[in-house]
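Checklist before submission:
- one chain only
- standard amino acids only
- sequence pasted in full

Submission:
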Amino acid sequence: MGEMSMNKAIHGAFRRDLDRFITALGTFQPGDRARAAQLATAWANFDDQLTHHHEGEHQIAWPALHAVGVSTELLDAMDAEHDTMAAALAETRVAMAGLLRDPGDAQATAAKACFETLRTVTVAHLDHEEAELEPVYQAKKDTPEIKAMGRAFGKTGLARGGRFFSWVLDGASPEERAGITASVPAPVLSIIGGIFGRGYRKEIAPIWAATPPRR
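Returned file contents:
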C-alpha cells in the first residue's frame, strides 16, 4: 500500500460526500421534508469543511509550500480554482436553502444540478492539487516548514477536530485511514473522535447509511 498524505485523505472525504449528495438528490421524493432536513444538516457540515479547508490552504499551506520550493504561479492557480469552488458553493447554498424551504421536485432537481457543477469543479481542483502537490508533501514531510504547517492545521479546537475526524474517516478506505493515522496516532483519534465527534456520528453519519458513495 502506497503512502498518502493527510491532505489527499481529506480529499477522499470531499469526493465521497459529493457523490452521496448527488445520489441522494437523484432519488429524492418530492415533499419529503424530513429527508430535506437531513440533507440540509449534512450540507451544513460539508459546506463548513470545504470552506475551512480551502481557506486554511491559502492561509497556512501555501506559505509553507512556497517556503519549500513551490512556485507562486502554481499557488496562484490553486487559489483561482478555490475561487471557482467558492462560487459553486455559494450557488449550492442557495439551492439547498430552497430545497429545505420547499422540498419539491424542481428544488431537488436544481440542487442536484448545483451539486453536479460543484463536484466537477471541486474534483478538477483536487486532481490538479494532488498531481502537483502530493509529491511535494511526500518529499518534504519531514521539513520544519511542513511539520509546522501540520501543527497549525491542528489548532482548530477539540469540537471542530472531533467532528472533522469523524467526518473524514466515515467511509474512508484503508489507504486513506493510514494517511490520517500517519499524522495523528490512532489512540489520539479515538479520544478526540470518540468524545467530540459524537455529534457527527449521531446526526450526520446515519444520513449516509443508506446512501453509499459510488465506487
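Reviewer check: Residues 6-156 form a domain with the Four Helix Bundle (Hemerythrin (Met), subunit A) fold (CATH 1.20.120.520).
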